[in-house]
Write a structure and sequence with these properties.
Layout (H helix, E strand, L loop, with lengths): L40 E2 H4 L14 E5 L2 E5 L19 H19 L3 E5 L2 E4 L11 E6 L5 E6 L5 E12 L6 H13 L7
Antiparallel strand pairs: 1-2, 2-3, 3-6, 4-8, 5-8, 6-7, 7-8
């Protein structure tokens, strides 16, 4: 036989978990007032460091809120990554908004870019088509190093709740000049808002 390359089949498990289905969504928490916007890190600053393509550039702005941060999604995201009519309970970019905001907070605090490692629970509060943009994410650090987060629509309705989200630091360092806007927006400011 010829001297062609031998290709082995490889599988990579990126995530696993339990999915609990219910006949109906649980009662939604009461709406809360979305936090007011403040000067913060901007989309060009974020994506000068982050590596996401246009469909997942979900963090338009981020600012300090209590000990955590608030991030706003863009008003006009590119088309939803799932084709029309495809099954799906939520737009995955709302979860990605939480991930990227936690990474931005971590970058501002300790200069490390945190990639997703694990989470304890993700709960969706409304259907995928609910909550017109721009939604906001609120990320709060916990004493154990994890984050809790929630995503609210413009009316303050909860679209998503993320608990026990943990990151792992991307090896290497981020240029100090690139970190400066994250630090100014998410770490150096005096605490504002409620935690």
């Amino acid at each position: 036989m010829g001297g062609g390359a031998v290709h082995e089949r490889r599988e990579t498990l990126h995530a696993c978990g339990w999915v609990l289905l219910a006949a109906a969504l649980p009662a939604a928490p009461p709406p809360e007032e979305p936090p007011g916007e403040r000067p913060g890190v901007t989309s060009p600053e974020v994506y000068g460091v982050f590596f996401h393509g246009p469909s997942f550039r979900v963090l338009e702005a981020g600012w300090r809120h209590g000990e955590g941060a608030v991030g706003r999604e863009p008003l006009n995201l590119p088309l939803h990554p799932l084709p029309p009519g495809a099954p799906g309970a939520t737009d995955p970019r709302r979860l990605e908004l939480c991930f990227q905001l936690a990474a931005a907070w971590r970058l501002g605090r300790d200069g490390n870019l945190g990639l997703p490692r694990s989470c304890d629970r993700i709960s969706w509060g409304l259907a995928a088509d609910a909550g017109a943009p721009p939604a906001v994410a609120i990320v709060e650090p916990r004493d154990d190093g994890a984050f809790d987060a929630r995503v609210l629509d413009r009316e303050g309705r909860r679209l998503l709740t993320l608990t026990g989200y943990r990151t792992v630091a991307l090896p290497g360092t981020v240029d100090g000049g690139a970190v400066r806007p994250f630090r100014a927006a998410l770490a150096d400011a005096a605490p504002v808002g409620a935690a």
